[in-house]
Amino acid sequence: MIYVYSELRSGFRWLRQYSGAKPSFACILGFTATGLIPGISAAGATPEDRQYTAIADAEFLVKGVQKNYAHPLPILEAGVSPTFISRAVVEALNIPTYIFNAGLLHKPTVSTIDLGGVAAKCLSTGQAMPLEQVQHLFNQGLLWGEKLAERSDYLIIGECVVGGTTTALALLTALGIEAQGMVNSSHPNCNHSQKLSVVQTGLLNAKISSCSGEPFSLVAAIGDPMQIVSAGMAIAASRRGGVMLAGGTQMLAVYALIEAIANYHNISSQLSQIVVGTTRWVAEDPTGNTVGLANIINGVPLLATGLSFATSRYPSFRAYSQGYVKEGVGAGGCAIAAHLKQHWTSTQLLTLIETLFTSYRSLRMDSVGQ
Fold first, then answer.
1. How many other C-beta atoms are found inside a 10 Å radius of the C-beta of residue 75?
2. Nearest CA to 318 among 328, 330, 308?
């Protein structure tokens, strides 16, 4: 139930090595004002909603089904948050989960590990974050990557950053990778032209042509706080065990950033221990080219869960098969972990997720009724 799309030998070797192994899950929350651009993301119906998407997703990931939430999951154009997938898996497998605040616009409503970051400005400014903050966040990632790697066999690193596929395109482009038309989106049809326009404005304002400059400076100009934390965390954790960067385009960009940092700064990392794990909705997205992107990033194994919602009894989940949502909050990586640990089929995993969603809907309806 796990598919390998690139670097087949390395991907299957990683899967064999960590079959039945015990993971930990680090979910890194971040914010970029890029996500407030009208139409840039479907992870929240309005720009106002998108300010709280990561906070709401984290609240559900930590608390699961509750009668009341400080920030209920946002209403989407179609579909439901991928945090249902992540929560179902970590709850069923009792996976140790750590929530990191890399830089949010508002205070989280659950306990997080605060890394001392701040929300990024829109990448179009060319001045998304202070360089000192980027360096600080990288060091925090290194510190926590080493700590978490001691607690499990492999580390799943997930994210929740609205607008993050646009900052991913910006970072990939700045690193000299021709990613135009390849990235994904929470929209059913990726808004490539809008993303590219924002990226070109940001690169122009930052005076970045292509593959110019030191990697930290590139992130400071056009990136988001999650990217640099994930890179540091993965580098440190890879020295001790396996790492699964849980996401699609965003984590492919992080992998490319890891390579750039390791090469530019001569920092030790074990790239052979790092894979990118996502969903088939991302890997096989006909409006992007995830596999093509993975193939032009040197050495990255791209994995995907075989989870399908095509037969779900809930329209909110069937919307995934129509191109909505696709990924987020480490959903694909958590599903892969379930296949590795329990050898669950797609049907078994779907049942687990639907059971959680049924409980959530019932309690929310009761709450609204009162």
1. 10
2. 308
**What is residue 246's three-state secondary structure?**
strand
List Cβ neighbours of 43 (8 Å cut-off, separation of 6 or more).
Answer: 35, 50, 53, 74, 76, 162, 186, 325, 328
CA 248 to chain centre: 7
User: b vs e for 183-196, b when ≥16 Cβ sit within 10 Å of the residue's Cβ?
Assistant: bbbbbbebbbebbb
State CA 274 to chain mean position distance.
15
Taking a C-beta distance cutoff of 8 angstroms, is the pair 334, 246 a contact? yes
Contact 202, 125 (CB under 8 A): yes
Task: Name residue 24's beta-bridge partners.
Answer: 155
Distance (Å, whole) CA 185 – CA 348: 27
**How many whole angstroms separate alpha carbon 358 and alpha carbon 351?**
10
Residues 6-27 pLDDT 10s: 999 999 999 999 999 999 999 9
What pLDDT, in 10s, does the model give residues 132-186? Answer: 999 999 999 999 999 999 999 999 999 999 999 999 999 999 999 999 999 988 8
CB 184 within 8 A of CB 154: no
- For the record, the structure tokens of 183 come out as 């990235």
> What distance in Å separates the CA atoms of residue 262 and residue 176, rounded to the nearest whole number?
16
Rounded CA separation 347/307 (Å): 8
Q: In which band, very low, low, confident or very high, does the pLDDT at 212 lie, cut at 50, 70 and 90?
A: low
| Architecture (CATH level 2) of domain 2-369 | 3-Layer(aba) Sandwich (3.40)
Residue found under tokens 């390849």: 182
Residues 19, 328 contacting (CB under 8 angstroms)? no
Question: Among 76, 69, 73, which residue's Cα sits nearest to residue 43?
Answer: 76
Give tens-digit pLDDT for 340-369.
Answer: 999 999 999 999 999 999 999 888 765 544
Please give the Cα distance from 370 to 258 (Å, whole number). 50
Structure tokens at 26: 């680090």
- pTM for this model (two decimals): 0.95
